[in-house]
Amino acid sequence: MANENANAVSKEKELNKFSKMAMLRRLLPVVGLVAIFILFNVLTGGRMISNMNLVLSQVYVTMIASMGVFFVMTMGGLDFSQGSILGISSIVVCVLTQSFPLPVAILGGIVTGAAIGAINGFFYVNRKIKSFIVTICTMFLLRGVIKYLTTDAPIAGSATLINYDTTMMKLLCTVIVLVIGFIVFRYTKFGIYLKAIGAGEKAAKFAGIRTDRMKFLIYVLAGAITGFAAFINVVKVGSVTSSGGNQLETQILIALVLGGMPISGGANVRFENIIVGSMLFIVLQSGLTMMGISTQMLQLIEGIVFLVFVAVFADRKSLQVIK
Amino acid sequence: MSNEVRLQVKNVCKSFGITKAVQNVSFNINKGEVHALIGENGSGKSTLTNMLTGIYPIDSGIFILDGKEIHPKNQIEANNEGVSIIVQELGTLSGLTVAENIFLGHEDRFVKAGIKNTNAMNKEADALLKKYGFERIKAAHMIDEYNFEDRKLVEIVKATYFSPKIVVIDETTTALSQEGREELYKHMERIRNEGNSIIFISHDLPEILDKSDTITVLRDGVYIDTVKSKDMTEDDLKKLMVGREMTGKYYRADYGEKVSDEVVLSVKNVTVPGLIYDVSFDLHKGEILGFGGLSESGMHEVGKAIFGASFDREGSVTLADGTQINDIPTAIKNEIAYTSKDRDNESIVINQSIGDNICLPSLGKLGSGPLKLLSDKKLRAFSDKYAKEISVKMVNTDQFVSELSGGNKQKVVLARWIGRDSDIIVLDSPTRGIDIKVKQDIYQLMDQMRKDGKSIIMISEELMELIGMCDRILIMKDGKISGQLDRNPDMDENSLISMMV
Amino acid sequence: MSSSMKTTEKKKLSGKAKGYLILIVLLVASWVIFKIATPGNFGSPKQMLQYFQASLLAATGAVGFYFVMVMGMFDFSIGANIVLSSILGCVLATNFGLGYVGFVVGSIVCGALVGLLNGAFYVKLRIPSMIVTTGLALIYEAVANYIAGGVEQTLPSDMRAFGSMPGNVILAVISFIVAYIFLNYTKVGTYTYAIGSNEFVAKNMGINVNKYKVIAFLISGAFFGVEAILSISYGSSMVAVTGMASMSRNFIPTMGCFFGMAFRKYGIPIQAIIIGEFVINIIFYGFIALGAPTAIQDVITGLALLIIITLTTRVDKGEIVK
User: Fold this and answer.
1) Tell me, what's the pLDDT at B307?
2) Of A275, B490, C243, C250, which has the fewest CB atoms closer than 10 Å, so is most exposed?
3) CATH architecture of B5-82+164-246
4) Which residues in chain C have their CB less than 8 angstroms from residue A84's CB?
5) What's phi and psi for B190, nearest 5 deg?
6) Chains interfacing with C (3 or more CB pairs < 8 Å)
7) Number of helices (H) and strands (E), helices first, in chain A?
8) CB contact under 8 A, A187 and B374
9) Complex confidence, ipTM
10) Mutate to test the interface with B, among C12, C187, C263, C320 (most CBs of B within 10 A)
């Protein structure tokens, strides 16, 4: 009996240690964000705060698009096609604004994104091809389409778009999307379903979740969300060039990892990962740029920080075989 | 057989998390004997031999082989010490040739200056295969070209060609046909006559009595006794294996109670290609219907088929109100519950909290308001209620399931379905790898459910619990139902076994 | 039993032949289709030889990458490795005046080193390989950019022996032979398949799984070093791109590897990679001959990879794919 008690105590201790570790992991990104924000403000003599609008203007698209990928990664999938989706959807939005009212253009962007997401979902779910392979294929394929469509000249949207380019407007759109996402993820069954699929797909299926349908729809959703982000993107840049949306997928991946998201998804993901991660990424990037650091150096630092964060937050317990 | 000691097992212990799989086990194995290791599922037989052969590290205790302490870190090191194993599952690797499989880890003999002499390797493998009488298996062929049975024969060669001092045969026979078994027995006999020893693990008690010289019994990871086969009967062995809990309120005590005529579930002509053929039966209200058979008999697939989880299923599964069950969500919506034999992968999301696991199938019911929003408080109250009702041993429901023992995992699964208030409960191997105390809880729970008018299908490889718990037992053989037995105090395992094999 | 024996015997005999047959049909079919579509400017023997030479680049990398793919791992830093290795080799040859030795040894050692780093980080950090290599690719690109000083590196015209016949063919053939020997006549090959088949069983059998995973990455990296030599020799210069733009170089070797994986069951993976890359190139040049705009190249590449994978992946019911 005494033995059993001692056991229970040691177990409790272990659990304590475990939850401390979990706490640390949860706080690290937030503390990191605050710390580097202060650091850069000191280093740049407050230039960052005074240019906050400019800094923020880069975060909206990444943050919105990150949410879709967040859902995908929660299920244990990956999506590298987001940059190309943003590019194609931006082209569609631009073209539509030239002759249709704005809501039609926004809807057009969303539908385009959703359609590409559906292609990803089809190959991933029905053909059982690993998600990262499917999405690098579509990424490359669509990148070619973007290059082709912009061969002669960048595709410009309607000139009236500039009227919407206000911080208020972009901030509001981002907040609305995030709030809807938060409620759906946190207070409906879909959040728990997604985490269950990420943590154990077979078991999730045996608990009554239509996993295949869910996986497909999440890819469609991720595409649609980025399709919406395309509108914000177009408002900001006005026209799409051959590099439109380039690199967004890498930015999203880095942002989510910086936000503390375990790379394999599952039960340990938190919605805050999106917000903290994209902020951290943008602050880091703008801060380093403001300090006059070269592109290569920036990329080097990004690469190192990325690896460190992946290593810290990886949920190795749920990965039996790491491929 | 001599009385010289070959292997001493001394105070060996092994835990997995909080589960004590092997506790302080000590016994001796003599030269030139077939030493059987028996015990119920989860009694620690495989864990013990896996430590001996380097598959698991030893927590504490030692193995002394011919006076020398051995600590193999993997099978190759074990082989070099003179210990080898033929495992339960497939032990050969796809994508390699037969010869590569036989000599895996021992290639160095054929390597000169970094270059492997494939011809010499194939030649030697062919010679070995010939010596064993398996000429039809060719060393240079890919192992994938051979069926399960032949691949097991290759494993026999792989495990014994170097005349190891001890060969572990871990539940290999259940997967083999009669021919395959005869082949294996022949080689066991040969190894024994050469003065080497065999550790033989099997669930088939007549086989144990027939083929072994000495028997060691384990129960819940604890050493019980070592006996001579010739002095034992099957009943003696069973008593040793099951132990004290034969008495008391363990299984159901009632006999002769009439089962309701009301059919709640009707299975008609269900076929799952390659697994089960033309299975039909009815399940009655308040009935515990058992399915028994060998592991490969198809009975496990019956559970999946009812739950709508089988692929390419034909035939129909119909509820009393005419609803057809063809997929899992429909099954759950119509209050069918299922616990899989593969608990960690199929029954429960291991890397998720106890709370989420209990709530998962009931989430649709727990939402409130027009948007069906969930509140953390409500979910917590729900999972707390059912986790406590079935007394899951845990810190709180935020704890991850991966930290629980097998028995408590199973309790979480049951709590989930009780919370869902399912009416038809399909339990596949519900007590597999679970200690006696939790087993007793589960049996009591099943009895209570039955009295509450729930219907239960119990699929099990443990005949005793089928006999003890079921109103009716269907025996499966080669994917078909081969017989039926009704509840009866005089029923014994032999009547079931005769229908199984 | 004896009858089933005979059929397996027969299948075995025709296995390799069947594989070759499929590959040759693919080869001829792709040639015929484009020859009919655009008879004037496609597919003369001389042109076919050009296509073949161009296909050797990716084929040399792919035969090395095959070791990584068989184990079920992936590498996103292929392109970054090629860029870094070729630039380093070029700089060693020119700025340091080490000539051919510096160029060849530098590129291959650099490639192998990159592979070693990939493997070491993957094994030590215990993170999925594609994620580790994504992070590392960012770093390799940045390093390559530093070495190049931000400018395009051009290989001097007197050092382009590996850019044309016979230099390129000789180097490629040597690589193929080395890969073939590694795969079929060393422990590494056996263990690569063993780990790819079932890591747990392989580990239980006493194979040092982590060690051989690192070795696979090392081999793969060295072969990409060779691809780097061929690439810069063939194209005469190399730009140190940033922003993951090097990813576009990942595709063609990956495609070849999928050919190898698909033809593994016929026992001719290396051969399938070589012929597969050739077929892919025939199709590319076919499209160019048809007058497809250059931007469409990427579309074709992406689509071709998707189609090849779709055709070579078996859909198993109930299998969990992430």
Assistant:
1) 95
2) B490
3) 3-Layer(aba) Sandwich (3.40)
4) none
5) -65, -45
6) A, B
7) 14, 2
8) yes
9) 0.86
10) C187
Partner residue facing A246 (CB), from C142, C243, C320: C243
Flag whether residue C310 sits within 8 Å of chain B, measured between CB atoms.
no
What percent of chain B is modeled with pLDDT above 90? 47
Backbone angles phi, psi at B233, to 5 degrees: -115, 170
Prediction pTM value: 0.87
Nearest CA to CA, how far is C271 from chain B (Å)? 17
pLDDT the model gives residue B145: 85
The enclosing H or E element of B207 equals helix B205-211
Q: How far is CA B150 from the centre of its chain?
A: 22
| CATH number attached to the domain at C14-312 | 1.10.3470.10
Identical fold, B5-82+164-246 and B261-335+422-501: yes
Check residue C233 and give its pLDDT. 93
Q: Enumerate residues 195 to 254 of chain A having a beta carbon within 8 A of any beta carbon in chain C.
A: 201-202, 242, 246-247, 250, 253
What pLDDT, on the 0 to 100 scale, is given for residue C156?
87
pLDDT of C13 over the 80 cut: no
Q: CA–CA separation, B410 vs B91, rounded Å?
A: 29
Give residue-wise pLDDT tens across range C217-226.
Answer: 999 999 999 9
All structural domains of chain B with their residue ranges: 5-82+164-246, 93-152, 261-335+422-501, 350-421
Amino acid in the structure at residue B303:
G
Cα angle value B468/B469/B471 (rounded, 5°): 110
Q: Output the pLDDT for position B177.
A: 74
Q: What residue has token string 């995030």?
A: A178
Query: Could B363 and A12 be called an inter-chain contact, meaning their C-beta atoms sit closer than 8 Å?
Result: no
Say if the Cβ atoms of A189 and B402 lie within 8 Å.
Answer: no
What is the average pLDDT across B160-182?
Answer: 84
Sheet order of strands, B276-284 included = B276-284, B263-272, B314-319
Integer-rounded Cα Rg, in Å, for chain C is 20
The top-scoring range by mean pLDDT among B350-364, B388-402, C11-25 is: B350-364
CATH of domain B261-335+422-501: 3.40.50.300
B347, closest residue in chain A (CA to CA):
A203
